[in-house]
Design a protein that fits this description.
heterodimer, A: alpha+beta, Uridine Diphospho-n-acetylenolpyruvylglucosamine Reductase, domain 3, Alpha-Beta Plaits, eight-stranded antiparallel sheet, 17 helices, B: 483 residues, alpha+beta, 18 strands, globular
């Protein structure tokens, strides 16, 4: 292994001095769980990425690919971290066939830039993701973060049709293709979703695109009890109406949403200030479809008699949509001392959720709950400001919450926790026999353990 | 055939009969003949066929096969179209026909847990009264099994809107090549870690045997309309598909059949298809009533813009079912045109559909072969049926040449080899058209991570010809014998 002092010059030999950074203040910006790389490489082609990887393999160095660096906090501290590969200079829309509704884009392209490019043709990608302006498509896919279009259009595994990447031998590889239906060869690109950069460096992603609907609208309704909110959500779930998003948020989170809108000089829906559980339903389509959904929704709503309800359109509809899209950074923002857990579970009962809130109260923590569609929930535990070291309470509450929901068949991951806290919270559920299969995959992709070792889980 | 030594065969048979009972093991040549075919043009006969009834039995059978170093291939109903479930290297075939129970229906979470031998359509039958169905609908859905669908990542006409098998599977129970039983995924889907279900679905039985599957149940749409658009030319029909796609209209299904093929189908099924057209499109739209009405209107407009002679909307469920019966049984009707056919499965970008169909016609003319077209036009998934007569000298070889030209053209257009049938042993030699040595090296490492001795389904997916023959097999694979 080479000394860190000569690492940057060696990389400069591969990429040119303008594409290698080693200034300490810059390195700090690429920290992952307080670990700082020795150099930053900024390749501008897939061939250069492969060169850097082959160099890292030869020198027994470990790399972490980075994009907008908005979600580097997800996962556990890596076992080693020598080189950050900054992919943001690699950001072209390589191929776009609007007539086929397919595209191929470099991994360093931001989600916003890509959405703007396809919007010019009246299309969109179902990647409505947090950190929308800065996050790259490569980082988004690697993080596995949720899109608010998921209820209707699925997650990345449903519309990612192919990928190009550099594997752990430093070879440029591909999987899938640029057609919407393809079963040729193993679906390796699906493995990259949520892999946190532990299998390969993604250089290009192929997606199918969708046509923008004519119009959209949404409704927020506040309920004084969680039971009534869930009953209303369930009624909408079983209505057969094609809501693209359907979420439930706890009273405190609704207030935080209202504050965020006020901070942007927007008057929030009064529903957010009603101190109740809020059910948010959003829909889109041609005007007749939007009208029909609204009509049926009104009937459902009248039956449930929420104390406060508001239909949103125009800018406010867009602003509230953005709030839900950006829910993850909002959940972790109120305090540095916070833990954000993501659960995937069968249907949750009100008792399950009351239990979570009690767990938080026992440790004098604030609990924020966001029930997303398709069995995904975010549960944030937040310590109040000025409480000193809250880590003990946060760890106990997080562990209790994980224990409570995993008994009901949930799986969990930790979306946010401080580095010290990560040592006392299981970032992964009980490892079953399938974990050994994942380890086999890791070894097959990355035989030298070059990519973000240990970041997804210990041993991956 | 006959790769097992008489001693090995005898010992293995004896132990298998003791393990599963004599009624669950076949070894007579006349019985084995049934298992040497699927729906493709290749064949490969197993030496022994076993019918386990549980994952535990599958595990025991796998361990037993390992003891005797016998290759294993899994099989559902044998309706596959790529030779995926054929015993290319002889050995032991595990047939899942007797693992055919629906284990759980959970409507609250919209999931069903089924054994691999459950017939695709039986899931829908079990839940349709409650307003649900299982979305992937291969043409063989009345007989094909979910286990086979999972192995091949099967599609069907309605996958245009709803995705293929991988989009509808959330968890699997597997028996690995060493006999270990492992569960992957979770009921709700999306567990932390690598997307193992995403890898194993569509791995064509080369990584593990599937013994239990959790599938998503979809809610039936409020309204459905089926349209039959009739054209004088294939060109007009294909331009309609291009335009429908470009306008962002997403029918649930968009199928095309050329006029020549239609006559044979109509003679066979009497579905109400025209006998004098150049091509038809069979389109289906689903959703809210308002949405369906608007889509029907938009589709009619596009059809007429591209010179449709007639656009007929099925007036009732009976007519709709008849039209779909015509489509889903169309391959069977091809027997009226030629004694044999080779079904291709190439995919192209939808914007290139007219060009691809012209090429198919040229290739047919060049080789003097009839080529029918019955395919999923909406997602660019072509199914040219290359007709041939195996009794004529060189006719089969000519058909293979024609097929290869068409597939090469699909790849040139930016497409791929197979959209839903799988690579199997039929297309394995064409894989280098798409994949580089580096791609193969990685796929081979993945393969070897789970199936290091190639004991499971040897000779599939990877080319075994020059340069790509490193996939090890316990016994050297024999090329499939063509009928």
């Amino acid at each position: 292994m080479i000394a860190t002092t000569v690492l940057a010059p060696r990389l400069e030999g591969l990429l040119g001095s303008a594409n290698v950074i080693s200034a300490p203040e810059e390195l700090q910006r690429y920290a992952v769980d307080e670990m700082i790389p020795s150099a930053i490489a900024k390749p501008s082609s897939a061939a250069e990425v492969a060169e850097v990887i082959r160099f890292a393999i030869a020198e027994k160095l470990c790399v972490i690919p980075t994009g907008g660096r908005t979600k580097l906090g997800i996962g556990r501290p890596p076992d080693r971290y020598d080189i950050a590969i900054d992919m943001t200079g690699f950001n072209e829309l390589a191929h776009y066939d609007p007539g086929d509704l397919t595209l191929s884009a470099d991994a360093g392209m931001t989600v916003r830039a890509l959405q703007e490019a396809v919007a010019a043709k009246g299309q969109f990608l179902p990647l409505a993701l947090p950190f929308f302006a800065e996050t790259t498509i490569g980082g988004s896919v690697a993080s596995g973060i949720d899109s608010v279009y998921r209820r209707l259009l699925g997650n990345a595994r449903d519309f990612l049709i192919g990928a190009e990447f550099v594997d752990g031998k430093g070879a440029n590889c591909k999987s899938g293709g640029r057609v919407v239906k393809n079963v040729t060869g193993y679906d390796l690109h699906k493995l990259l979703i949520g892999s946190l950069g532990t299998l390969a460096v993604v250089t290009r992603l192929n997606f199918r695109t969708y046509t923008w609907p004519e119009s959209s609208a949404s409704q927020v309704a506040s309920f004084s009890s969680l039971e009534n909110a869930l009953a209303f959500r369930d009624a909408l779930e079983t209505s057969g109406l094609p809501f693209f998003n359907l979420e439930v948020l706890s009273p405190g989170l609704a207030s935080a949403f209202a504050e965020r809108l006020r901070a942007k000089n927007t008057t929030p829906p009064s529903v957010f200030d009603a101190n109740g559980w809020v059910v948010y339903a959003a829909w889109a389509g041609n005007s007749s479809v939007v009208r029909r959904i609204q009509t049926d929704l009104e009937v459902c709503t009248q039956k449930s008699t929420p104390p406060s309800v508001e239909t949103l359109s125009g800018n406010l509809n867009t602003d509230v949509h953005v709030l839900f899209r950006e829910a993850f950074p909002l959940l972790r923002a109120p305090s540095r001392d916070a833990v954000v857990l993501r659960f995937v579970h069968p249907r949750l009962s009100p008792e399950n959720l009351h239990d979570l809130c009690k767990i938080a109260a026992k440790e004098s923590l604030t609990a924020h709950v966001l029930l997303r569609p398709v069995g995904v929930s975010y549960f944030a535990l937040v310590a109040g400001s000025g409480e000193g070291n809250a880590n003990g309470g946060l760890a106990r509450a997080a562990n209790a919450a994980i224990s409570r929901l995993t008994k009901n068949g949930a799986t969990h991951s930790v979306l946010h926790a401080s580095t010290p806290l990560k040592a006392s919270i299981p970032l992964w559920g009980p490892q079953g026999p399938d974990f050994a299969l994942m380890q086999r995959l890791k070894r097959a992709f990355d035989p030298s353990n070059t990519f973000a070792p240990g970041r997804l889980a210990e041993g991956l | 055939m006959g790769q097992l030594s008489p001693t090995t065969r005898s010992s293995l048979l004896s132990e298998l009969r003791g393990m599963l009972g004599p009624d669950n093991v076949l070894s007579e040549r006349s019985d084995l003949l049934l298992y040497e075919f699927d729906g493709s043009v290749v064949k490969g006969q197993p030496e022994i066929v076993a019918f386990p009834r549980s994952a535990a039995e599958v595990s025991k059978v796998v361990k037993l096969a390992n003891k005797f170093q016998v290759p294993i291939v899994g099989r559902g109903a044998g309706t596959g179209l790529s030779g995926g479930a054929l015993a290319r290297s002889g050995g032991l075939m595990i047939v899942f026909a007797r693992m055919n129970r629906i284990l759980e229906i959970d409507l609250e979470n919209r999931r069903a847990v089924v054994q691999p031998g459950v017939v695709n359509l039986d899931i829908t039958k079990a839940v349709e009264q409650a307003g649900f169905y299982y979305a992937p609908d291969p043409s063989s859905q009345k007989s094909c099994t979910i286990g086979g669908n999972v192995s091949e990542n099967s599609g069907g006409p309605h996958t245009l809107a709803y995705g293929i098998t991988t989009n509808h599977v959330t968890a699997l129970e597997l028996v690995l090549p060493d006999g270990e039983i492992v569960r992957i995924g979770c009921k709700q889907g999306d567990p932390p870690g690598y997307d193992l279900c995403g890898l194993f679905v569509g791995s064509e039985g080369t990584l593990a045997l599937v013994t239990e599957i959790t599938v998503k149940l979809s809610r039936k749409a409020e309204a459905v309309k089926t349209l039959l658009a009739i054209y004088e030319t294939v060109e007009d029909a294909s331009q309609t598909v291009v335009d429908i796609t470009a306008r962002g209209i997403t029918p649930a299904a968009c199928e095309m059949i050329d006029g020549w093929t239609l006559v044979a189908i109509e003679d066979y099924i009497h579905a109400g298809f025209p006998r004098d057209s150049g091509a038809i499109l069979l389109l289906e739209v689903e959703g809210l009533r308002e949405s369906v009405a608007e889509q029907v209107s938009a589709i009619e407009e596009v059809c007429h813009l591209h010179h449709a002679r007639e656009v007929r909307i099925a007036k009732d469920e009976c007519e709709r079912e008849l039209l779909w019966k015509g489509r889903k049984n169309a391959f069977g009707a091809m027997g009226r045109l030629a004694p044999a056919n080779y079904v291709l499965d190439g995919v192209i970008p939808r914007s290139k559909l007219p060009s691809a169909l012209r090429k198919i016609q040229e290739v047919g003319q060049k080789h003097g072969l009839g080529i029918g077209n019955i395919f999923h036009a909406g997602d660019g998934n072509l199914h040219p049926l290359v007709l041939y007569d195996p009794r004529k000298p060189h006719d089969f070889e000519t058909a293979i040449k024609a097929a290869e030209e068409i597939i090469r053209y699909c790849v040139e257009l930016g497409g791929t080899l197979t959209g839903e049938h799988g690579v199997g042993m039929e297309k394995s030699e064409l894989m280098p058209l798409l994949f580089t040595d580096a791609d193969f090296d990685l796929m081979r490492r993945i393969h070897d991570a789970f199936n290091p001795d190639s004991s499971l389904n040897p000779g599939k997916v990877f080319p075994i010809s020059k340069g790509c023959g490193e996939i090890r097999t316990r016994q050297k694979p024999q090329p499939g014998v063509h009928p």
